[in-house]
Amino acid sequence: xxxxxxxxxxxxxxxxxxxxxxxxxxxxxxxxxxxxxxxxxxxxxxxxxxxxxxxxxxxxxxxxxxxxxxxxxxxxxxxxxxxxxxxxxxxxxxxxxxxxxxxxxxxxxxxxxxxxxxxxxxxxxxxxxxxxxxxxxxxxxxxxxxxxxxxxxxxxxxxxxxxxxxxxxxxxxxxxxxxxxxxxxxxxxxxxxxxxxxxxxxxxxxxxxxxxxxxxxxxxxxxxxxxxxxxxxxxxxxxxxxxxxxxxxxxxxxxxxxxxxxxxx
Length: 265
Fold this sequence. Notes:
By secondary structure, this protein is an alpha/beta fold. The chain has one domain: 3-Layer(aba) Sandwich (Rossmann fold), CATH 3.40.50. 30% of the residues lie in helices and 22% in strands. The protein contains six helices and eleven strands. The protein has helices spanning 3-29, 49-63, 78-81, 100-111, 130-136, 238-252, and strands spanning 34-38, 66-70, 86-90, 115-119, 140-142, 147-153, 167-172, 176-177, 186-192, 211-218, 221-226. Strands 2-1-3-4-11-10-9-6-7 form a nine-stranded mixed β-sheet. Strands 5-8 form a two-stranded antiparallel ribbon.
């Protein structure tokens, strides 16, 4: 090939590089999936909610998914929910969905394969809505004063536990639940009640088997719940943020959802 021919080929390749780079950037900037964070409360309101919202938005920026946030329950309709691969109930309390049409739309969303993430007081919601009780896994009962406790991470091999130590010491508000969800979920983490005072303000605790995080397939969809996340400090804790990120990924279909009860833990 002549010298002029080689120069022409090199020039053409150089001209092609910016276009290729631009195309690659465009693909990288396209969100892999969409998540809705819902934080409406009609009961107790946690002052950590803004911290949680900001933390999940940051996780989306860092890990390539889009995050919308709302406290407007009217978005729970078929058209709006269809945009999202997972819906996060961030410390919702009371009856955040108080219209039957909203409940019906969310139920259809889950039935059609949608994802649900419940954080902390999401279990303090929907007491008169038994379907939601099954989705979250267990209802809140009470809690002792926030304090340090040891979490036993027992559900290995999931995105929600991949970075967690076997025994995880952290400070939080530790929920007791009205029932033990183990029969219907895969338990990912339990509390060692020997490491803190577990007696809640109603005078009880859960005993030796005290689940605090779990996941399960439910009514056609995917559900993950963690009882942690009361404190503002939780939302700057890299281990807790990894736990939340994994739950979002699993329920959105971006990570393996190995959450059936056949798995140990």
